Amino acid sequence: MLDKDGHIKIIDFGLAVDGMNGDKVVSDRTGTFEYMAPEVLQEKPYGKEVDWWSLGVTLTGMATGRHPFYNGPHKQLLYKAVLKEKPTFPTWLEPDAKHFLKQLLRKRPQKRLGVSHNIREHPFLKDIDWAEIESRRVRPPFLPFMHVPELQEHPSLELKLEDSMAADPIPGFSFIGDTE
């Protein structure tokens, strides 16, 4: 999610286990099925390593528009693919990005990027100045609607759905999710 200034905010929609600090492990099947790591699907004890897997699935979807293991309606086939298959990526995906995603999606939790190595040191992220990001000195690429000049001048002004900025803030983005 984005905060009021357009900076990324990590949130929990209530589908996570609270208090996953240190070396705590659980074995509850918690979360959204499509983002579950193999150890969660197998109901094995797991820790924070599953978050790196979920990040890999999320970033793959953002980069390619598809799930890294299976893109179909059958959960059982996704389950089998996550447990047995290697992730697949389009040929046009940049090699550093592909390697980055593959490292996040390693089947063995202790080998995942973020667990085995510092994610910030991966070549795909080499151009990021983490100190600038953390201090919020980097201008976000997208500003929420409250930064639209007309809204600042007239806070009572409502955006109408036919306003192209409100209905389509980012080309190709939809507020309407898949209903399946």
Sketch the major β-sheet. none
**SSE string, helix = H, strand = E?**
HHHHHHH
**Rg to the nearest angstrom?**
19 Å
Estimate the helix proportion, in percent.
25-40%
* Mean model confidence by pLDDT: 81
Helix count, DSSP H or I runs of 4 or more residues: 7
Structural class: mainly alpha
Would you mind describing this structure in some detail?
- It is a single chain.
- This protein is an all-alpha fold.
- Helices cover 30% and strands 0% of the residues.
- It has seven helices and no strands.
- Helix 2 (49-64) packs antiparallel against helix 4.
- The longest helix has 16 residues, at 49-64.
- The chain is globular.
- It starts with 37 loop residues before the first helix and ends in a 13-residue tail after the last helix.
What does this entry show, briefly?
With 180 residues, the protein is mainly alpha-helical. It is built from seven helices and no strands.
Labels describing this entry:
180 residues; mainly alpha; 7 helices; globular
Fold blueprint:
Layout: H1 38-41, H2 49-64, H3 75-84, H4 95-104, H5 130-134, H6 149-153, H7 164-167
